[in-house]
Amino acid sequence: MSFKRTPTETEKPRKLRSDTYYQIKDIQQKLKLRYSVIKAIGFRAILISFVIFNIIVSYWFSFKTGYILSGVLLLINSIQLTLQVLIIKRKVPKIRKCFQKFNVEYFDYACMFLVLIMFLILLFSIINIPYHWKEGFPTECKTYDNSCARLAYDNQYRTNKIQNKYALTFRNVTGLDKIVDKYMENTYGGWYQKLDFNMPDSNYTYLVYSVSNFIGIINDVAIKIDSCRDVWSTTSISIQSQLRLGLKDYGSNYNIIEGIIYQIGESVDSSSRNYLYCKAMND
After folding, report:
1. Contact predicate 110/118, CB 8 Å
2. How far apart are CA 157 and CA 154, in angstroms?
3. Cα angle: 121, vertex 124, 126; to 5 degrees
4. What is the C-alpha R_g of the chain?
5. Mean pLDDT per segment of 10 residues, for the chain of length 283 residues?
6. β 169-171/273-274 pair status
7. d(CA 236, CA 168)
8. d(CA 36, CA 53)
9. Cα pseudo-dihedral 133, 135, 141, 142, rounded to 10
């Protein structure tokens, strides 16, 4: 009777040990890939929820760049999310290999940075909506504030050149609110929004707009059209424009006020223009 001796570990064929080693390595690599893809899916789902928020709020604020850029990011992230789900289900082995070779971390960080910056801008834009303007035309700009400009009989601020250059009151003229509405629509197109801050019980016409630029910074503009107190059949225009976020406007508020006053002056008969400012009835 003969016995067959079992070979020791060192006596096993080298090829068998090598195959086992690579099999274990392959399993570890697959598990690592599976974990990284699951982790990426969770990250991307959160990112997509932020992008959807940005699209909704950008559309609400008439921020074109915001919802166009967010729409592109939503499309890209949705495609990546779909591919990652397919990788988990092992439906697309070729894409799986590409995913292994291509490092998407830097792209993810770039998307996250853009989405987060827009999210913060839009979030603080919501928080800083000037709801106190619903009570009436604002009374002043802060004296140290370089993010505001005001053209009014009282507390005028950073608009002296406009007062010396353009007509500020108009005699026997009606429909100035329609002139302003038309100007805002033609000048800012899809970049502005008329806020529902109307005061039906007031004795003057009150208009409030928000104007967005290409990076989402918003200027809030309040306009009061009121009768002059001491001059018969004369209407005065008061305008205050200020940044919703930021400390310096780089002339944007001045330009908004100048554009409105210039358009009103060009839209009425020259005989109706008056270059002397008067105190409004409801000041």
Report:
1. no
2. 9
3. 110
4. 32
5. 54 53 62 63 83 89 84 84 70 56 64 85 89 90 84 92 90 93 92 82 87 89 91 90 91 96 93 85 77
6. antiparallel
7. 6
8. 26
9. -100
